[in-house]
Specification:
Helices cover 47% and strands 9% of the residues. It is an alpha+beta fold and 246 residues long.
Length: 246
């Protein structure tokens, strides 16, 4: 331990004949990469990412943040804090989007774990198009032009806003089709669905609509993904559940 002007040192030893686990390597690499004065916060954030947040308001200190993802983690934190404060404000409906979209905040674009966590938190709490656009403008202002994965992440956030507008809580890829649920379609909307998408399937009992995932070009081309797929999904919702289409 350092004293006054004397710098302190710590030596970490491990048996050379035994390979390090991935977690152990991550911990040592994090310490080695953050040796400057005041780097304790960066080390703590990496530790949080590795082992998880544990019991948010209790004494347990174990968990797996990577297993639930940043969006869910941030929502759980918000719910726990609101419950602790006695705040009964209604939370926006959670929307699950399970589609082939490369959406994330790359380390190369946003290097700090704390900064990435803040950005994920801002997007998780954005429930309007204006709120998503505000996050976009802030990212550009602070970190420069957006790489494709970040543009995709913002597109997912905007798509979730649209889903909430129509009461849809899950959009997922199921084989060669995209499934939307729940959707309660009147007879006129069912007829329109069959006219616009000849292979679409509507299951009224469970409130799901399945529409074949389109391709980028002609036969044999790759199926849509990323922003193009999100835009197509948005068009499907607008066409079968939008205003004036009941």
């Amino acid at each position: 331990m350092g004293r006054a002007r004397e710098r302190g040192y710590a030596y970490f030893l491990y048996p050379p004949e035994r390979p390090l686990t991935e977690t152990a390597y991550d911990r040592l690499a994090t310490i080695a990469q953050h040796t400057e004065l005041g780097a304790g916060m960066a080390v703590a954030m990496k530790d949080l990412e590795i082992r998880g947040a544990g019991n948010l308001l209790g004494g347990e200190q174990s968990g797996h943040i990577a297993g639930v993802g940043f969006d869910l983690y941030v929502r759980l934190v918000g719910e726990a804090v609101a419950e602790y404060r006695g705040d009964g404000a209604e939370e926006a409906a959670d929307v699950k989007v399970d589609l082939p979209v490369d959406a994330n905040l790359p380390v190369e674009y946003l290097p700090g774990e704390r900064l990435r966590l803040e950005a994920y938190r801002s997007l998780a709490s954005a429930t309007t198009d204006d709120a998503v656009e505000a996050v976009r403008e802030e990212l550009i202002d602070r970190f420069g032009p957006l790489p494709p994965p970040v543009e995709n992440l913002l597109a997912v956030a905007r798509f979730k806003v649209l889903c909430r507008r129509y009461g849809v809580t899950e959009v997922a890829l199921q084989g060669a089709a995209v499934r939307f649920s729940p959707l309660d379609l009147p007879e006129s909307a069912q007829l329109r669905l069959r006219r616009l998408y000849d292979r679409a399937v509507y299951k009224q009992a469970v409130g799901t609509v399945s529409v074949s995932r389109p391709r980028q070009g002609g036969m044999g081309s790759e199926p849509l993904r990323d922003i193009a797929l999100l835009q197509w999904c948005g068009e499907v919702l607008e066409q079968i559940a939008g205003p004036g289409r009941s």
